[in-house]
Amino acid sequence: MSSIRGSRGAEMTMTTDQNTPAPALDIDALSVSFATDGGTLHALKDVSFSVPKGRITGIVGESGCGKSTLINAILGLLADNGEVTGGAIRLGESADITKLTPRQMRDLRGLQISTVFQDPMGALNPVLSVGKQMRDIQYRSNLSKREKDARSVEMLRQVRIPDPEKRLTQYPHEFSGGMKQRVAIAMALMMRPQLLIADEPTTALDATLEVATIELLKELQQEIGCAVLFISHHLGVIAELCDDMIVMYAGEVVEQGSVRQIFRNPSHPYTRALLDCDPARLHERVKHLPTIPGTLPDLRNRPKGCVFQARCALAKPECGQPVTSVEVTPGHIARCIRTNEVTA
Amino acid sequence: MSAPLLSVKDLRVVFSVGGTLSRLRGHVTAIEGVAGVSFDIAKGETFALVGESGSGKTTLARTLNGLQKVASGSIHFDGKDATSMGRAEMKELRRRAPMMFQDPVGSLSPRLDVRALLAEPFRIHGMSDRDLDAEVRRLLTLVGLPVDFASRYPHQLSGGQARRVGVARAVALDPQLIIADEPTAGLDVSVQGEVLNLLNDLRDRLGLSMLIITHNLHVVRQIADRTAVMYLGRFVEMGETEAIFRSPAHPYTAALLSANPEPDPDRVHDRIKLPPEVPSVMARPSGCEFHTRCPFAQDLCRRNAPPLRVNGGHQLTCHFPMNTPAQAGLEQAQ
Ligand SMILES: Nc1ncnc2c1ncn2[C@@H]1O[C@H](COP(=O)(O)OP(=O)(O)OP(=O)(O)O)[C@@H](O)[C@H]1O
Ligand SMILES: Nc1ncnc2c1ncn2[C@@H]1O[C@H](COP(=O)(O)OP(=O)(O)OP(=O)(O)O)[C@@H](O)[C@H]1O
Ligand code: SF4
Ligand code: SF4
Ligand SMILES: [Mg+2]
Ligand SMILES: [Mg+2]
């Protein structure tokens, strides 16, 4: 197991297991299924990685590859038809949190983990003013109402909401998409969590605000000393913000390493194809944007060997057999038998 | 040149904010979400709207679709004044200029299967007499989905497939203009490429015009013929996309383009940094409204609003445009 985990980032690989402090988050061979009409859908299979303390780990992957499912499993918020069918999730020194009661999970979410969900509209209550919601989230503090509001205003100012005092009395529908996203970020950071999970928190922001938000996240992360798990389809944001990254495909981790290792030397054919599709790499206008032909495999009927084989240009018969992970360089791991033939 | 398909002149949209209490206290009670915007979209043209979060892009799009009241100005669609349309005419306009909303996955009703979702536009517009099964097959094929997807429900679709269904609904009733608010947000780069290729392809085959709102500048550069940059409810720069990307003339445009994150961890960015204090539409700055954040602001900028400078197809509002080739021929409009 340890061969496909280990700490990521070249800077961190020299420490031995004994000296390594417990990571902020450790996911160990996690599998999650959903019961559906057409049979059991295996959304996550044998997912293993860890997020070291004080570092930012990015997750990228095809729409539908299981990123939100992973987050929901960590938070104990899987849909009713979802179930953790194997593996463990540890937070810092804690025991496996998949075994906690709903009540214990709720406390953990309040105290140790904060989340910015994918859909900022859904994260805010439409019938309560933003100020009331920001006050409510501070229910554990002993501050007076006025002091709580002052903290809310300060947080809103940090995420660049203009006129924060007036904005406190307004309702979510009076904010633009990007403003709601920034309010959600402000609320998550107010809790000073040990682990911040952010599911595409910058999609509704313009580039200047996106960069400012990334810098703010980095600053607060360093100040609070928390670990961050950051999901984004924007590869430029991952490259700029994250220390380490995980590449997922069809519910499996296919590659992991430091952002530099992966952007410089993508070693799984899916990662390579994904990076090639980024329009940021095109310097001319093209008639047809690059895409990866084919679709995700049916998760109810996962292929026996490599999950990417149906779409892989390098596939050969052996790929139909179970594939193990290979360490490309220390801390850089890819689940492919032809890793050496993938070129950047 | 033939008459534009869409022509917007000096459009303003006003929101009233705060309750009776703040009105009694004499606080600001109305804000201009869109503050005097003019532009045309030609037949077959793709026009992109980019700009600050909260600058009024969604409000502008909703207004074109009759979902937001016009305070003043005009909107002409195919020569007809949309601001004075009755309900029936407005419904017809929505058929010909449908809107894809910022969150199409969420806007697909979870109780309806794909067949019902695709038949819905026909029902709404009283065309149920058509062969709906044939229409559903036609639309699925058009957007590159297998016809057996008709029996799937939204939660059984991936993000990209759900967007395709959204596109299929938008093109169902032979539209002339598609208004798409963030059509690729939340999609991975490969599926994003598929959706954009699809939109481009439909534009070429059906002669559609498109108004695309997006924060993804790489997307803009790939698909838009012309681009407008919005700040505090106004266009600060508008022109050919390629010209704007090559040599942005307005300092805000330049800052926006320089901020764009690139997929390279070792990239040293030469960014135009903007101070964090975003001004509010409730208290618009004097003179040039960008002066509170503009790195090149002078006294003149704080005092006087810059005039609109028009040069052929390019226009901007700035006293001191960036030093670019485009600047040489700029003339002041009367
Ligand atoms: N409650 C559910 N019941 C059945 N299938 C589900 C359920 N929730 C998710 N799935 C399926 O599990 C897979 C993973 O979905 P998930 O939402 O985790 O993807 P994602 O990586 O977050 O995608 P995106 O980038 O589009 O947000 C998909 O095939 C999805 O259809
Ligand atoms: N119903 C409303 N009531 C009051 N103010 C509103 C309302 N809708 C929008 N606004 C305000 O109008 C301005 C423009 O909002 P709009 O949603 O059009 O911005 P946007 O450019 O689409 O932003 P984003 O890129 O973040 O989606 C914002 O200041 C917003 O707070
Ligand atoms: S194991 Fe085979 S099919 Fe899978 S990614 Fe590697 S080469 Fe391609
Ligand atoms: S008019 Fe002045 S403040 Fe405004 S954008 Fe131009 S240089 Fe900057
Ligand atoms: Mg998701
Ligand atoms: Mg918007």
UniProtKB/TrEMBL annotation, chain B:
Q: Record's InterPro entries?
A: AAA+_ATPase (IPR003593), ABC_transp_ATP-bind (IPR050319), ABC_transporter-like_ATP-bd (IPR003439), ABC_transporter-like_CS (IPR017871), Oligopep_ABC_C (IPR013563), P-loop_NTPase (IPR027417)
Gene Ontology MF terms: ATP binding
Q: Where in the cell is it found?
A: Cell inner membrane
Q: Domain named ABC transporter: which ranges?
A: 8-257
Keywords from UniProt, A to Z, are: ATP-binding, Nucleotide-binding, Transport
One Pfam family this sequence matches = ABC_tran
- Membrane topology, as annotated: Peripheral membrane protein
- What family does the database annotate? Belongs to the ABC transporter superfamily.
Q: What's the protein here called? A: ATP-binding cassette domain-containing protein
State the species of origin: Pseudogemmobacter lacusdianii
